[in-house]
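Lab notes, practical 5.
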Amino acid sequence: MGFGNGTDIHDILPVYHSGPSISTVGPPVVGQLVLTVTPEFGHPLHLFDAARADQNSHAAVGGEIRPIDASKDFRPKNRLPILKLKLGECEELLAIRAKARRCVVLAVADGIPDNHLPSSERDRARNAFQRPSYLVAPAYSVSTPTEPRAMTVTIAARAECLVYPQLVFLPRSGGIIQQDSVVRLDRAFWTTLSPPSELYAAALSDIRMSILQGQLQVLRGEEPGKEYLEMVELLRGELAEAHAQHLP
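Output from the prediction step:
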């Protein structure tokens, strides 16, 4: 294990499965690693308050980025329509950062084909339902002395030992996971994997996906299985003393 956590449990419980059985061109499967655009929702949220620059052109738009004002935003506004933005009466543009990150696929939801609907409804429903969607959880690189990050070494060491059910430790592996990383289940989001996205010929191993399912059960308020609870007890016993300080 990394971060001074003792015996390398990854040799006993391999993290990754790779090989030609994992497609990089077809739809991804649960457990597969992908690269996709990941929104960074801050707190509090900000929006881009867009406004037409003049009354004659839809192409010239101005505005400001500001915190959301609950007293007036997402409510009817007296503003000129902006054709290219197609904002509805109570819609706003969120101002968020985004980055292409490696993610683990947690679930797959198929789209609804046109021929499954009455012809009178197809055009109306197509854009909203024609594509499959994927629930993915993004990975964040662990802090280093040369590149300090919010994912500190202590948090990563505890994730490695299943202290936090919302975190999944991914050790570096070849060219896909280039640095030790931690997947945040609490930042999972649905996406259609629109470009730029990439599928990798790698996935979490069956045993690691079993552990992850136990973590999701905890997050849902369900009682996880005996095997998961035993694994938590085992791995927490491996947590280095330096990283166990301040824990309740």
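Observations recorded by the TA: The longest strand covers residues 97-109. The chain has a mean pLDDT of 91.
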